[in-house]
Amino acid sequence: TVTVNANPTANATNGGPYCAGATIQLNSVGGSATDDWAGPRAYTAPNTQNPTRPTSTVAMSGVYTVTVTNASGCTSTSTTTVTVNANPIASATNTGPYCTGATIQLNSLGGSATDDWTGPNAYAQNNSQNPTISGSTIAMSGLYTLTVTDGAGCTTTATTNVIVNPLPTTSAGSNSP
Prior knowledge:
Elements: E1 12-14, E2 18-19, E3 24-28, E4 34-39, E5 43-45, E6 52-53, E7 62-69, E8 75-82, E9 84-85, E10 92-94, E11 98-99, E12 104-108, E13 114-119, E14 123-125, E15 132-133, E16 142-149, E17 155-162, E18 164-165
Parallel strand pairs: 2-9, 11-18
Antiparallel strand pairs: 1-3, 3-6, 4-5, 4-7, 7-8, 10-12, 12-15, 13-14, 13-16, 16-17
């Protein structure tokens, strides 16, 4: 009697692409078999069907292989390619401090990304790398947040503190006749 055991089904997938810092989710349809994973940077996840890799980095990108072994000892492998994109660079500055009435200039190093700004008094400016706010008031002082989003959907934030000073008060007088 000859018994030929069937190879298990191996099908590796992942939930990417990912942005740096996200958790990588690896998936296998191994079922009642043993799933052993291997990947970049000496990554291993023995006997784990759907492992995760928290706090991903660009260096974790690459080919991940799952080896599925069934109860008969037969094996099958499958691969999935994980892509971890670098987050964009965000740098927020302004040209202040300002005097009341001056134009506030917000600056981002942005470039090939989308720059969205928020700030005091419900200030919001979308898709603007270096917006200006004319007629500044003391109420416009505070923290402005820049959110940079790149083409892969990865985001990074930065802040800049805007200071608007009141104009000095002057009075002129004379004690001469």
